[in-house]
Amino acid sequence: MKRYEEIRRELVEGFGFVNLKAYQHWVEHDRSKLKLNEALIQRLSPDRVDCRDFWRVCDDLFELDPVCNSVVSPSVGRLSHAIRNRMDANRMNLRFAKAFGITDYLEENAQQRLKVLEIGPGYGSLMHFIETHTNHDYTGVDVAPRLPDIVQATAQGLIPQELVEQGADSYSYVISTNVFQHLSSRQRQQYYEDIRRLLLHGGLFIFNLCIDTGKVGYLRDSAGNAWCDHYGQFTEVPKADIYTDLAKHFGVLYVTQRYDGVFNFVCQKRT
Prior knowledge:
Layout: H1 4-15, H2 20-30, H3 38-43, H4 51-62, H5 65-68, H6 86-99, H7 102-108, E1 115-119, H8 125-133, E2 137-142, E3 151-152, H9 161-166, E4 171-176, H10 185-198, E5 199-210, E6 219-220, E7 226-230, E8 233-236, H11 242-247, E9 251-257, E10 262-268
């Protein structure tokens, strides 16, 4: 498992990502020329690095971008001004969550004291929304906690099993935005299992993810499989088989699609 110094060396010396400007230049000028192969995929795979260290390196090198993705974000939904601080990042991320209706679900039972778990709070855009708009009891899990009282994920990028065991069958909502595209297939499968354990009967799992519809220009390997790329890390983009994966654990209630291939899923725990 690669740790902080080795990860940083891969990014700075291997890819030339010395800072955000260098990474942006790569996205705009070099990314399209990349020949994706197995060695490159495995180089910084989430399954081969300490995920906590990977995102700590990204925070150190790329400023606010690991939380708000301003370098590669689409023109629709962006703020009308530059993202200069954490508050701006929260504004953009909250706009994203509102566009998919995530905040509407949280407000449906706003006056009740329900338990909410967020995967990947970032700078707390949804945490602050829950705090000011509901009476819900909030817990956040993140590989790189940037706020007090956020539970740190494991080195494998997963929910700590102690939290899963202690919180089993108690959460009304598990929510996540702009996170699951950063996970490997193995990690996603484990998250689905753990989230089902955490949710009470009828509880909702709401998250979004890039899906390969064949219409978006993802990087592709020799077999034609699509891959997301962020900071030298490549994660497989699922196809329609994601519905089969989700159906093993949940009932899929609603699916909404953004024009660029981002899908939002509202899933419910059933018996």
